[in-house]
Amino acid sequence: MKAIGLKVARPVTDTNLFEQTDIETPTPTGHDILVRIKGVAVNPVDFKVRKGKADDGNFKVLGWDAAGVVEAVGENVTLFKVGDEVWYAGDVTRPGSNSALQLVDERIVAQKPKSLDFATAAAFPLTTITAWEALFDRMGIDRTDVEGNKNKSILIINGAGGVGSIAIQLAKLAGLQVVATASRPETISWVSKMGADHVINHHNPLKEQLEGAGFAAVGYILCTAETDQYWDVMCDLIAPQGRIASITEASENHNVDLLKAKSASFCYEFMFTRSMFQTPDMIEQHKLLSEVAAMVDGGKLQVTATENYGSLSPESLRKAHELLESGKAIGKITFTGIEG
Question: All domains of the chain, ordered by start, with CATH?
């Protein structure tokens, strides 16, 4: 089967960054299903893994957002059958979705929304799982208590990115007042379209802007930008007994005692945790993706795919990585799959 990947980490400007080649078609066993990829999307994790690629000569296939059709199933599979149309983010410890076919554990897969084509559907899984787990699993927001959440607020840092775009919508559906950050006219317009009640500029002091919007503090903060950059200000802005979640790693040591007097908490969200450690609750990702599919088909969630780069190829994939690395991407970049 055909696959696109790399053997050596190179800068994104290198026209030979990715190569397409033929690799062995895998056979599903156990809980694995074999999916023929019809749509893929890119995320920051793609270029982070790419940059960290060891110079070991091994061919690395990236890509952790996909939609496609089940082509074969392992002997323990009970959730799917051949011909099912599915979507998923996959497992960062296994070969990715930038290939014609991919093995993935059924417990982190769901039926894709019927109302979306494959490429558009592929924009959802990774960012949706990340936002859902950050809001509802990590910070413990009760998404069923819409009335009770109306007096609660959340600050979403970098609201125009893939995770921010979904997090705004999920937080609004849960009843929260949403403040999102954006700086350019096009990103301000985007986060407003996603449903943010207030938009503030992350290039300017956040405290004054929050106060100007009527918030002395916020009960929840979701950081989808640089944890290092926002640590001190998040500790300042969080309300007593509030909760902070971040999806980006820190490279500096930070003073957690800034949260002590407020009895506030901080946690990380990494959507690959369940698959990476084969946690007993892996199937929760199947459940949440199933629920989100129904929400999409019911018109409750807006599409976050903004650009389609056509058929997946080494050059189109390089261009997508280049835009992601620039920090100027809005929403999600998608592709149709490769055949063979």
Answer: 2-123+280-336 (3.90.180.10), 128-268 (3.40.50.720)
